[in-house]
Design goal:
The complex is a heterodimer of chains A (168) and B (58). Chain A is α+β, with helices and mostly antiparallel strands. Chain A has a single domain, classed as Beta Polymerase, domain 2 (2-Layer Sandwich), CATH 3.30.460. Chain A contains 7 helices and 7 strands. In chain A, helix 6 runs antiparallel to helix 7. With 58 residues, chain B is an all-alpha fold. Chain B has one domain. The radius of gyration of chain B is 19 Å and the shape is elongated. The termini of chain B are far apart. Classes of the chains: A alpha+beta (168), B mainly alpha (58). The interface between A and B is medium-sized, with 29 and 26 residues.
Chain lengths: 168, 58
């Protein structure tokens, strides 16, 4: 995994989530960690979020990124910090921070943004705060259309997790 | 049963492992992932160190 010229001094995906919530950032957790939180026995090495692109939220997110010394993950040693314009786009910002890797997505498969995903998000209590997580059913739908082989590999585990959850 | 469901049933999913994770709280699941993350990093670092040592002239 490219880490740019900066290596995380610790790796705690839980700490990244906690920091985002403490900073008041509006986001929906998607990707592998969203599946982990809902009970899928998979391991993931980064946090993937889709964020609200309101001006206030962009300011809060930028301040948080500064506090954790976020820079783009790169194969060379250049340290490039994300800026406001980057966070307003629909692209994927693959970052490294001093507490672990963080991927910030302007939109996910099908160009779906934060607002469009809200109705598919569940809220869970995480370390005393409310965390929005993309529900397992939607995650599975997205993985089905993904071209990433890792997504295809994980699909049966996610489906079995959903099946057991629905049987409960 | 649909063809897709048949394939899912035949896949090598460890159902007991899924059940075990579902018994954990969301916070415990994140902690388990973080522990796995750290262990993987530690093993990768050890592997890199070993490879670097092997390349050093004796």
């Amino acid at each position: 995994m490219p880490t740019g010229g900066r290596k995380p001094t610790s790796a705690s995906l839980g700490e990244i989530l906690e920091g985002l919530l403490e900073a008041g950032v509006d986001f929906i957790l998607v990707g592998g960690l969203a599946a982990v939180i809902q009970g899928a026995p998979v391991t993931t090495m980064d946090v993937d979020i889709v964020h609200s692109q309101s001006p206030e939220n962009i300011s809060r997110l930028l301040a948080f990124l500064k506090s954790v010394e976020a820079v783009y993950r790169r194969l060379d040693d250049k340290l490039i910090e994300p800026n406001e314009r980057d966070l307003l786009g629909k692209g994927h910002l693959l970052l490294t921070t001093r507490i672990g890797p963080l991927d910030i997505l302007g939109a996910i498969e099908g160009g779906r943004s934060y607002e469009e995903l809200l109705e598919h998000a569940i809220e869970i209590d995480f370390r005393g705060r409310r965390l929005r997580v993309l529900d397992l059913k939607t995650l599975i739908e997205l993985k089905k259309t993904s071209t990433d082989p890792r997504d295809k590999q994980r699909l049966p585990v996610l489906k079995e997790t959903l099946r057991q959850l629905e049987d409960k | 049963m649909s063809e897709e469901a048949k394939i899912d049933r035949q896949s090598d999913v460890d159902r007991e492992l899924v059940a075990m994770f579902l018994r954990m709280s969301p916070e415990e699941r994140v902690q388990a992932n973080d522990d796995a993350f750290r262990t993987i990093q530690e093993l990768r670092d050890a592997y890199r160190r070993q490879k670097a040592n092997e390349r050093k002239p004796r």
